[in-house]
Structure formats: C-alpha cells, structure tokens
C-alpha cells in the first residue's frame, strides 16, 4: 500500500490508505501474521473510508490522521476477532471479551481513535446544545 496525503492541501486520497498491515499488526493483539492478508487489507480499507468520510478536510496533520487510521483498523479487526477472556483445556471452554455497544467505544482501539480526534467527529456523544435567555435571568438549556 502506498501512503498518500497532500500536506500542503491537508487532504486525504479517497482510495489510498495511510497505514500498512504491519503497522496494524504492531498494535492489534487480536490478529497476527496468520490472519489472511485480504482480511487485514479489508480492515485497513474500511478504516480509511471511515476516516476519509469523517475527518478529511479538517486540516489535521498527516501523522495524526495515520495514527487514527491505525487504531480504527485495529478496532475493526478486534470487532471481528474478539479477545479471549478465559480458556480451559478440560471440557474445552473458551470465553471472549464482548461489550454491548454499537460504536467505536466498543474496543480499546476505537476509544483511542476517539481520544486522538481533536474534531470530536468520531465521538457519538457530542450533542449540540443551545442556550437562550428569555430576559428573566433564568437560563434554559435544550438538547
């Protein structure tokens, strides 16, 4: 995969991911060298499409975008291959770490991507708040 980012324009290429398979394997403990290359490439491409749709055009530095994409790819991998919480050999039991959540907060990698995003675009907890004073000195807040 080739790395493409216009530092002058601070825009992403729509189709060329910023991270490599090796960079995702370096941080994601849920996958390893045995994970098919096509699957890993799909995690990376999905992360890039998501990153492009959410953060392109905000003028973020390439190094930050690359880190966020790396953690997003690891997030998608961890959703596919959840971490093992416990294993036993006698009656062959295995338990997985599973959280019930529907966004990036579901994995530690997604949480890291949210934490790295200064725009708050990756956070689903952002809620617009408007404040108005009706002249009575009472402040009303609407969600």
Helices and strands in order:
Elements: E1 5-6, E2 11-12, H1 21-27, H2 37-55, H3 62-80, E3 84-88, E4 93-96, H4 108-116, E5 130-133, E6 139-142
Antiparallel strand pairs: 1-2, 3-4, 5-6
Short key terms for the protein model shown above:
alpha+beta, two-stranded antiparallel sheet, globular
Walkthrough of the structure:
The protein has 143 residues and is α+β, with helices and mostly antiparallel strands. The chain has one domain. The protein is built from four helices and six strands. It is globular, with a radius of gyration of 19 Å.
Total number of helical segments? 4
Number of domain units:
1
The structure class reads alpha+beta
- In order across it, which strands form the biggest sheet? 1-2
Amount of helix: 25-40%
Gross morphology is: globular
Mind describing the biggest β-sheet? 2 strands, antiparallel
What is the terminal-to-terminal distance?
43 Å
Q: Provide the succession of SSEs.
A: EEHHHEEHEE
Mean pLDDT equals 81
Number of strands: 6
Q: In angstroms, what is the radius of gyration?
A: 19 Å
Beta-strand percentage range: 5-15%
Instruction: Show unreliable segments.
Output: none
The quaternary structure here is single chain
